[in-house]
Design a protein that fits this description.
356 residues; 15 helices; 52% helix
Length: 356
Amino acid sequence: MKKVIALILLITFVLSSVNVFAASEEQVARILIKVSEESTMLTDLYKAGEKYRISNNVTNQYIDNQLNIYINRCLTELIKLNSDGTLNESNFESTVQNVLFSQAQRLEPVFLLVVQEAYSNLIVDLLSNKIPAQFEPLYKALVAETKDILGWNIKFEMPVLTPFEEVVTNSSFTDMGRYKWANEAVESLLSKGIINGIGNNLFDPSADVKREEFTKMLSVAFNIVSDTAVCNFNDVNKNEWYYKYIASMAEMRMVNGISETEFGVGDSIIRQDMAVMIYRIGNKAGIFGGVEKTEDFADSFSISDYATEAVSCLKSAGILNGSDEGYFFPHKTSNRAEAAQILYNFYNYILNTQNN
């Protein structure tokens, strides 16, 4: 067993040194080590490969290389699906299974012969859309490693929140006239330093909230702030006020960028993205377990896949409200008054959860 593990590490080191694959070879190595520790899959394939050693030049190194390619492609596709919003926790395991099947079709014919030689029932299982029993250790290892990569295994312990000292319905700002419905939320969050005005007794309630601004609100409200956190978004300047808030939230996998390299600093946040950020905090803290689903918004069909679960959960929890006609407008930008109200609703939801 130790020789097999050593061989895996050696092969993945050589492959990573020539940068053949997009995904990390260390991640591939961890998967293969788990597989070798929990099954005889590798030795089964080595034994089956002996039949094709002379006719097709099949060696143990060839088998290892093909497995590396296969697992790397699976990881790369899953990371891409997460990045574009297709992958979520509700469809995760079925998606991993589909990726295993689809990527198997790209393997070299000779390697497929080796696999078929090792596992005669493989084709029957695949045609039945079933993970072959011999591949269960690989499937489980891929699931665990992907969750680690995506940060889905990161848990967050919600701090014990303190109630707002008093309910204030009169605003200390002079520009809240049309937005007096948000007075209580704004004044309550203001009292805890979660939000601020813009000066001269103004709150500017109709102004769009930027992505970095809402990230800071969440970071401050729930003490998700680390002075040592780092992030690698190209548009997040280390010398700007927002850096530690974005970095802290990104490290906890509570925020994503608008792409793999850009956070979207300066972009106005849209309503469904606000919901996703809030949902990730609550989900990692385990506070949505008892939420019973209610009727969806009238425009739920227009919510992006990556935000569907978040919006549905927050609506059911009473954190999100739509228009009088039942519309959510997921792609509409959110103004400062709306952001304050949603954050206030979430804060109070947690308070109620902690007190019951």
